[in-house]
Design goal:
Elements (H helix, E strand, L loop, with lengths): L4 H11 L12 E4 L8 E5 L4 H10 L3 E4 L16 H11 L3 E4 L2 H5 L4 H8 L3 E8 L5 E9 L3 H10 L13 E9 L16 E13 L3 H11 L6 E6 L8 E13 H11 L7 E4 L5 E11 L4 H7 L3 E5 L3 H8 L6 E5 L1 H5 L1 H13 L5 E4 L20
Parallel strand pairs: 2-3, 2-15, 3-4, 12-13, 13-14
Antiparallel strand pairs: 1-4, 5-10, 6-8, 6-9, 7-8, 10-12, 11-14
Length: about 375
């Protein structure tokens, strides 16, 4: 049975959480009925006329695109507007559009992991790490017979998620005691008498932003009017999420050979691959950033890598970077080409979530806006 659009969106957003998106970005579902079934998806970089037509030709009910269609605020999507026309075309043909942009850039794995894999790099960490979500540690004691109810409440409120694991908790059986005084309304024991009974200590973690919800759930589900619990803030840990990746080749190779490696690994474009550096200088460690990455030139330098691969490098930032001491050599590729490897990664996310029930296609249509290149063959630059 085919999943609904809502279920497919949930699977994609689990891999590329919307909260990872930059504040200026526009990610998520642009159009589509969450209740409608989905049995075919097209994954692409750009939601443009060509890829929308491709999705309709395939009979896809969803286009998953990396770039947003409506990045800047709009007041309407009339059919005589370029972007509005695409929205109308998608709706008329029963197709939704979901965009995963900077949330896919920062996810682990994400856009730059796919680029690194295409280049044969072993990823060692993010180039510009996002702070890890701060965690709290919670320890609560609950009487025998009430453990499962309390666990379910904590889980539903957002506790007990560790990496790719859910409902993670440590349970320790023991004996608890207390003496209710006159004002108490005890669920067990009698006023003035020392009560002892079997209880379970539950230890788990929770995202700090869910603290209020988790504590509210604890108090609502716990049988005691005054639950015994401890809550501690955990030290921040290094994050594997963030923009760009640092990686290394299995063996060092001359920069000229590495540039050729990049050209062979990515789809061909009119922009091609251009580079700045000494052809014979060895390359072993490499920073990559899918999409426009000249804002991370300093980060690449701080990382101490031999080369930096990204897109849309501008004249002045690149020149200022190269003028510095011990700076990485530069490889500049077309924006679309640097992000296209992500499409296969995203397609695999859907296939793993819905094995055998959703037919996923990766668009091979070149949507890079540059279509022609010219050179004066044989001419030597002055």
């Amino acid at each position: 049975m085919s999943p609904t659009l809502a279920e497919v969106v949930a699977a994609i957003e689990a891999a590329y959480p919307p909260e990872l998106a930059e504040s200026w970005d526009a990610v998520g579902l642009v159009c589509g009925d969450p209740a409608e079934p989905v049995d075919r998806v097209l994954v692409c970089v750009d939601p443009v006329e060509s890829t929308v037509d491709e999705a309709i030709e395939l009979g896809a009910q969803l286009v998953l695109a990396h770039h947003p269609l409506l990045l800047r605020g709009v007041h309407g999507v009339p059919a005589d507007d370029a972007k509005g026309r695409l929205v109308h075309k998608l709706i008329r043909n029963g197709a939704g559009l979901l965009c995963a942009h900077t949330n896919a850039d920062s996810a682990d794995p994400g856009v730059s992991d796919a680029l690194a894999e295409a280049l044969g790099l072993r990823v060692t960490g993010p180039l510009d790490a996002k702070p890890a979500d701060p965690l709290d540690a919670l320890s609560v004691i609950v009487p025998a017979g009430h453990t499962d109810k309390l666990l379910d409440a904590l889980f539903a409120a957002g506790a007990a998620a560790i990496g790719d694991y859910r409902e993670a908790a440590f349970l320790h059986e023991g004996t608890a005691q207390f003496r209710p005084i006159a004002a108490a309304d005890p669920a067990a024991g009698r006023h003035g008498e020392l009560h002892r009974g079997p209880e379970t200590r539950i230890e788990t973690v929770l995202p700090r932003h869910r603290r209020r919800a988790v504590l509210a759930a604890l108090h609502a589900a716990h049988p005691y009017e005054t639950p015994a619990y401890d809550l501690h803030e955990l030290a921040e840990e290094p994050s594997s999420r963030g923009i760009g990746r640092i990686g290394e080749l299995a063996e060092a190779e001359p920069f000229g050979a590495f540039v050729q490696r990049v050209a062979l690994a990515l789809p061909e474009t009119a922009w091609g691959v251009r580079a700045a550096g000494e052809p014979e200088r060895p390359v072993r460690t490499v920073a990559v950033c899918g999409g426009a990455g000249d804002s991370l030139l300093r980060a690449a330098t701080r990382a101490g890598v031999d080369a930096y691969v990204t897109a849309d490098l501008r004249h002045h930032p690149a020149g200022e970077h190269l003028a510095g001491a011990d700076t990485p050599m530069l490889v500049d590729v077309a924006h679309w080409a640097s992000e296209w490897p992500w499409c296969a990664q995203a397609a695999d996310v859907i296939r793993r979530a819905f094995p055998g029930t959703v037919d996923v296609h990766v668009s091979t249509r070149r949507t890079d806006p540059w279509t022609l290149a010219a050179s004066a063959t044989g001419r030597t630059p002055a």
